[in-house]
Amino acid sequence: MVKPAKIKAVAVNQTPAPYLGQHLRGVDHGRVILPVEWRAQGAPTDFMVIVWPLTGPDYLLVLPPARWEILQKNLEALSLTDEQAATVERLIGSSTSLRSLDSYGRLPLPEEEAKKLGIDGEATLVGRMNKFEVWGPSRYAASKANSSAQGIADALKSIKI
C or N: which end of the chain has fewer Cβ atoms within 10 Å? Predict the structure, then answer.
């Protein structure tokens, strides 16, 4: 007689907490600690860190596995003969690194790129719901100061809030 396989119990609420808020953090030996609410039980510990935007970097875009999978699926749908798609894939591939949290919840940053972006000593973490950004504090403050009210209003209209 064959015994039935044991089914592992799954917690009802395994959806990780969303990445919300703005957090100023120290950078220690190229690592930045994530807010405790971003590290809830079941939250990802592996991330894809992309120097972003690709054409003129301002910050590090951090994608958890679920969001990285969406990006990959969208890229996979493109034709292999599409040269624009190949260019985008090259840029993303060469600007991305896999990073894992250490046991203290610190995310190692790509050091050279982080320093170029002013992420040295301190970092501003900015939640974007299913992903987050790591900015140099002064660069982030300048970006916020340059945001136009009309541009924000137009963006809100486009997503039908």
Answer: N
